[in-house]
C-alpha cells in the first residue's frame, strides 16, 4: 500500500495526491490522515481529472466546518473533548501522586457516512 506523508493541510493533501497519482496512476481510493488533506486530494482530482473517480475518499478526524466540501467527506469522528478531559485528569492524578506511570484509555470513534463513500 503506497503511503505519502503530509502536513495535515489542504495544500499537503493536494501535493500528496499528485505524488500518489504520479507513482500509482491506477489508484482508485485514498485514505487521508485528516479531513483537510482529504479535501486537498479531492480538489486536485477535480482539477486534474474532472470528477474524483470511483474510489471512496475518507478523512480521519472531523474538523469544524469541513463537511461542506465537494464531495462531502465520509469521516471518522473522534470524541476529542472526552479525550482532552481524560488527558487532563490523568495529568492531575500524576501531579498529585495518585497515579504514577502510563495509563490506557480507549475511546470509540464513530463513522460519519457522507457523499464520498
Structure characterization notes:
With 117 residues, the chain is of the alpha/beta class. Helix content is 38%, strand content 11%. The protein has a four-stranded mixed sheet with strand order 1-2-3-4, covered by helices on one side.
Characteristic key phrases:
alpha/beta; elongated; 11% strand; 3 helices
Annotate the secondary structure layout.
Elements: H1 10-23, E1 30-31, H2 35-49, E2 57-60, E3 74-77, H3 80-95, E4 110-112
Parallel strand pairs: 1-2, 2-3
Antiparallel strand pairs: 3-4
Helix pairs in contact: 1-2
Structure described in brief:
By secondary structure, the chain is α/β, with parallel strands linked by helices. The protein is built from three helices and four strands; from the N terminus they run αβαββαβ.
How confident is the prediction overall: mean pLDDT?
83
Write down the overall geometry: elongated
Order of helices and strands: HEHEEHE
Class of secondary structure makeup: alpha/beta
Q: What radius of gyration results from the CA coordinates?
A: 18 Å
Task: State the helix count.
Answer: 3
Distance from first to last alpha carbon: 20 Å
Q: Low-confidence stretches at least 5 residues in length (pLDDT < 50)?
A: 51-67
Number of strands: 4
Strand order of the largest sheet: 1-2-3-4
Into which percent range does the helicity of residues fall? 25-40%
| Main sheet properties | 4 strands, mixed
- Give the percentage of residues in beta strands: 5-15%
Amino acid at each position: 500500500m503506497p503511503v505519502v506523508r503530509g502536513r495535515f493541510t489542504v495544500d499537503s493533501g493536494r501535493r500528496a495526491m499528485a505524488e500518489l497519482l504520479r507513482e500509482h496512476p491506477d489508484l482508485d481510493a485514498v485514505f487521508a490522515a485528516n479531513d483537510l488533506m482529504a479535501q486537498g486530494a479531492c480538489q486536485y482530482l477535480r482539477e486534474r481529472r474532472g470528477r474524483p473517480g470511483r474510489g471512496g475518499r475518507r478523512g480521519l478526524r472531523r474538523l469544524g466546518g469541513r463537511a461542506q466540501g465537494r464531495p462531502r467527506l465520509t469521516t471518522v469522528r473522534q470524541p476529542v473533548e472526552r479525550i482532552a478531559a481524560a488527558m487532563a485528569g490523568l495529568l492531575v492524578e500524576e501531579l498529585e501522586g495518585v497515579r504514577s506511570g502510563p495509563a490506557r484509555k480507549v475511546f470509540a470513534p464513530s463513522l460519519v457516512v457522507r457523499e464520498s463513500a
